[in-house]
Amino acid sequence: MNLRSLSTSLLVLTALWSVSGCGTSSGTGSAGGSASTTPGKKIKIGVSVPSADHGWTAGVGYWAEKAMAMYPDVEWVYKTADKPETQIADIETMMTGELDGLVVLATESAPLTPVAKAAHERGIYIVNVDRGFLEPVADVFIEGDNEAFGRKSAEFVVQKLGGKGKILVLEGIPSTVNTDRVNGANKVFQANPGVTVLESQSGMWNRQKALEVTQAMLLKHPQVDAIWASDDDMALGAEQALKEAGRQNVWILGGAGMKDIVKRVMDKDPVFPANITYPPSMIATGIHLAVSNLRDGKKDDIKQFMPRHMKLDVELITPDNAKDFYFPDSVY
Questions:
Q1: Which top CATH class is 3-144+280-313?
Q2: What pTM does this model have?
Q3: CB 189, CB 170: distance < 8 Å
Q4: CATH for 146-255, among 3.20.20.80, 3.40.50.2300, 3.30.450.40, 3.40.50.11480?
Q5: Which of 231, 251, 281, 326 has the greatest CB tally within 10 Å of its CB?
Q6: Burial class of residue 242 (count of CB atoms within 10 Å of its CB; 0-12, 13-18, 19+)
Q7: 108-165 per-position pLDDT tens digit
Q8: Which helix (H) or strand (E) holds 101?
Q9: Phi/psi at 300 (5° precision)
Q10: Of 14, 140, 4, nearest in space to 71 by CA
């Protein structure tokens, strides 16, 4: 799903659940937890996301603030965290107040699951976005189709290699997102024995880390045909490593639709022949749903028809369709 189609979905959701407003406010908690809301009561929602340590999470922050600004009648507690320990502490602090809802994009899946479970047991309405918890403690889970991300991108790699070649794999942060992407890709690679995965290492969805990891892998592998990077920031780090090593004729398949990479796909840059969509604006979907499901005090009734798991499709970006996914004014 590209940003335009996601925006359309947001408008439909807004119409369906009769949500409106503009502006923003912030606040901190003081005592107790809230299991439900009543009409006319000012609701309080916490939003916890990773710090902008790479382009995609910068986009998450941008869209989170844009969505919160639509609702001045909501008391917002917004926090960014650079590591799981910080995010856990932030959420625990939020829970000391009368918190009605919590929108969480986890820094990592496993360490955030216990605190999410604790919030759930207090009756706090939880919307989990992108990186899932390891237990079904969220009222709603919104994610991109990461298995399709891995599968579609790997199928492109195999096709472009003509079914034969040697590749390096750059994985991301330990999370459900990374697991699904890598598993989806590996199923394709394993089904095509002519394609050899020389090595698979984590670049933590970080450009500098990916540079260092790729440098180390290139020293061990004199012949590499392509790099499956699973994220555009890591793809740029891998490209820098290739340049510094003087390695030519190696191309990269990243992902998530960074505008700079999409432009290079559109311009038929041989280093970046394709990409995969994965819009950070999905955080806005989560925020809209939290507000619409809480503000009228009928969240328990809404649960009867609200799906607990929403999966957004991803699309392969090629030179033929890249113009449809290129947004030069985007933050990402």
A1: alpha beta
A2: 0.79
A3: no
A4: 3.40.50.2300
A5: 231
A6: buried
A7: 999 999 999 999 999 999 999 999 999 999 999 999 999 999 999 999 999 999 999 9
A8: strand 101-104
A9: -70, -35
A10: 14
Report pLDDT digits (tens) over 20-51: 333 333 333 333 344 444 555 689 999 999 99
pLDDT in tens, 241-278: 999 999 999 999 999 999 999 999 999 999 999 999 99
CA atoms within 13 A on the CB side of 15: 5
Q: How many CB atoms lie within 10 A of CB 121?
A: 10
- Angle between helix axes 176-190 and 146-160 (nearest 10 degrees) is 30
In this structure, the chain runs to a length of 332
- CATH 3.40.50.2300 in the chain, residues? 3-144+280-313, 146-255
Question: Considering only CA atoms, which of 149, 153, 146 is closest in space to residue 167?
Answer: 153
* 3-state SS record for 184-214: HHHHHHHCCCCEEEEEEEECCCCHHHHHHHH
What token pair was written down for 165? 């070649």
